[in-house]
Each structure stands twice: as C-alpha cells, then as structure tokens.
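Tip: read the tokens left to right.
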C-alpha cells in the first residue's frame, strides 16, 4: 500500500511539474499538486507506522478528531460570515462563508437522515433511492471540497511575491470605489504596482501603468480615473499612467487594457496586479483571452480572505460548469445504473 501511494504521488508530481512548466496559469496545477501531496502523506504515514508501530495510535486519534476539526471549521466559517456581513454589507458574495459553515454542519445531518429514512422504510425502492441520494450528496460535497482545496492551494502558491522579468506594462485591476475614492482593498493593488514601478533599474524604460475599471451604477466616476489620480498623487509620472475606464468585469479589464497598451506601443512583458485571492482567476482569464500576461498579488485584510477565496472559487466553477458536469455526471449515472441493476 505504501509503495502504491508513493508511486501515485510521484506520477502526480511529474504531471504537476510538466503542467507547471507549460503554463503556470492553469487550475489543474493545483489539482496535481494537491493529489501529489495527499498521496505522499499517505505513503509517509505508512513508512512511519512500519518503522514505529506505536505511531498508529497517533493516526487513530487524528482520525477521531476529524469531526471535531470539521465542527471547529464550521464555527469559524459562520463567525467569519457574520463579520463579513457587518463589515462589508449584505450580498450573496459576503454570505458565502456563512453558508459554507452551515453546510459543514448540515450536510452530515442530511446524509444521516437520508440513510436512516431508507433503513427504517419497508419499501425497497425507497431504501435504494435514499441510499443513492446520500452517496451522491457525499460525492458532490467531496468533489467541491477537493476542488476548493486545489484552487486555494495553487492560488497561494501562484500568488507568492515574484517578478520574473522587467515588465513593460503594469495593469492594475479595479474594484469598487467608496464615495468616488480609492478604498484600502484597491489601494493595496495600486501600492503593489507602484512598488514594482519604482523598482525599475536605472537606464531601463519604466513600465506604463494601466489602472483599469469602468464606472459602476453606484459610483460617481470610473474606477480607472480614481486609480490614475491616486497613482499620480503617489509620485508616478503622469506620462506613464494610461487609465482604462470602460471595463465592467475582469475579462473586460484585461481585453480593454490590452488595447490601451497597443495604442501606447507597449508590447513587451505585462504584469497584472490584483489582490492575492483574485490572482488565480485573473490568470485563468488572461490565458483564456490569449494574453501572455502574468499576475501578481497584493495583501488583503485577513477577515476578507475566506469569503474572497470562496467567491473566486465559485466564479471559476461556474465559468467551467460544463467541465465540472462532465466529472460529476458519470458518477451519478453509474450509481443510478447500479441501483437499477441490484433491483432487477
């Protein structure tokens, strides 16, 4: 078992290295890395238990504590959801952490109810249906947990501070303004871009700055205009600031900013700057739009991070809903077929 786990871990690690080298801006990198790490832990655990048999007691205790850890995570998620609602206002995005906390408690309860209902029923068909529904709920929940873990893992790895080459342009993705002014969340993106801009070596052409964002229904002016004002106030040369003020989404940020760069004659390496929780989704969108731009992240307030990662994960899953359906649907069909087969 240990050798098999180690072999599987090695295969996933090699897949990760190859995929990472080909394009770091892919969600599957996180899946490969997570699977490699998971099977490596299983293999290492087997080796440790074989060398020191008393350690099996530690792993048994750890397994027993899993429900307690899940409950603690649920309490944390609910508390974070309440903080988000109080600090950021009521919206579906701000509710995500709270909903996940409730789900962590509610899903096991639903599965137990389904299985128990089937067990107590004298109708064989109902027993099969409730058992099947319970298995589907467990599978879908596990799939969601694994994809979220892979998304979060690769987001954190990919977003680590780095600038591989001197950029010719810096695109700063917009977010909402508050009363027409740059709020702390957006300011962290602009400050990160300014730090890279100021670090330009002597004798090298400075990158242009493209603050990108249109005007929302509740905003008195375009985000790009407010961002450009902030950049110039912080010392950026006005000639280096080329605001983009028409975009309404991250995809439009990237596409329209690319046109601004083309008009400015800047076709060299481009860096996109956003908050760390948004890096991977922005990178996926950059890849989808045909851009070669890399993405770097800036710090985010700690209380905002859980809900932000959840929101980005949901957005990626929705954007790739057909692919996710292709993964989940065969399992559901197989389960239904097995239930029918056992009833014949």
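Filled-in amino acids:
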């Amino acid at each position: 078992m240990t050798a098999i786990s180690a072999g599987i871990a090695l295969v996933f690690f090699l897949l990760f290295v190859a995929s990472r080298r080909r394009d770091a801006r892919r969600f599957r990198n996180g899946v490969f890395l997570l699977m490699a790490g998971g099977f490596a832990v299983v293999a290492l655990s087997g080796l440790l238990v074989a060398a020191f048999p008393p350690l099996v007691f530690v792993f048994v205790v750890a397994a027993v504590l899993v429900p307690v850890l899940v409950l603690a995570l649920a309490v944390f998620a609910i508390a974070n959801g309440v903080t988000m609602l109080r600090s950021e206002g009521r919206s579906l995005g701000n509710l995500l952490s709270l909903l996940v906390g409730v789900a962590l408690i509610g899903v096991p309860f639903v599965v137990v109810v389904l299985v128990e209902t089937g067990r107590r029923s004298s109708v064989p068909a109902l027993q099969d249906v409730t058992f099947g529904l319970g298995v589907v709920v467990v599978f879908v929940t596990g799939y969601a947990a694994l994809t979220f873990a892979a998304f979060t893992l690769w987001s954190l790895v990919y977003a680590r501070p780095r600038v591989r080459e001197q950029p010719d342009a810096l695109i700063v993705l917009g977010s909402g303004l508050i009363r027409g002014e740059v709020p702390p969340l957006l300011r962290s993106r602009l400050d990160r871009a300014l730090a890279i801009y100021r670090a330009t070596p002597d004798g090298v052409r400075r990158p242009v700055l493209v603050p990108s964002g249109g005007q929302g229904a509740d905003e008195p002016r375009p985000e790009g205009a407010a961002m450009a004002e902030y950049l110039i106030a912080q010392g950026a040369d006005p000639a280096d600031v080329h605001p983009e003020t028409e975009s309404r989404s991250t995809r439009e940020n990237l596409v329209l900013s690319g046109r601004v760069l083309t008009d400015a004659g800047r076709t060299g390496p481009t860096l996109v700057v956003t908050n760390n929780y948004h890096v991977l989704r922005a990178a996926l969108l950059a890849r989808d739009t045909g851009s070669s731009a890399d993405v770097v992240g800036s710090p985010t307030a700690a209380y905002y991070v859980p809900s932000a990662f959840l929101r980005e994960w949901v957005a990626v899953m929705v954007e790739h809903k057909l692919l996710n359906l292709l993964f989940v649907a065969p399992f559901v069909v197989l389960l239904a077929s097995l239930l029918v087969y056992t009833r014949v």
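The chain has two domains: 2-159+322-343, 169-300. The mean pLDDT is 86.
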